[in-house]
Amino acid sequence: MMSQTPVSLPGPVPADPEVVARPERRIYTAEYKRRILAQADAATEKGDIAKLLRREGIDSSTLAGWRRERESALAKAFTQKRGPEPKNNLLAGENERLRQQNKQLEEELRKAELIIEIQKKVAMLLGKPLSLIPENENS
Questions:
Q1: Higher model confidence: residue 10 or residue 81?
Q2: d(CA 71, CA 97)
Q3: Rg (CA), the chain
Q4: The whole model's pTM is what?
Q5: How far apart are CA 47 and CA 53, in angstroms?
Q6: Which helix H or strand E contains 12, and what residues bound it?
């Protein structure tokens, strides 16, 4: 008897046509999802949804995800406000910027007033009052 050894052909070995190298992700259209959800909602007999899922090759988790998407879209549609945004929202950024600028300027003014008070005290100690800075009558 002769032993048979596999014959090696030159060139690359073709891939097995039965095995997919990398499965492609299925993409469902909105119309398809809507149709399947309508059929699932219309199911009345026990096992109808399971038959639908088997026939279409869909997992129950996919159907549950589509139901969540539908509910969130409905919730968003009913809570969405129509019309242009109020002007006070458009001016909020400018208003906040001006508040920050005002805060910075108040801090600089406080520092300047402290420096002036120190200068006045130093001038009084030296016996030379500052004539450039008028005395405030209220202080």
A1: 81
A2: 39
A3: 40
A4: 0.45
A5: 10
A6: none
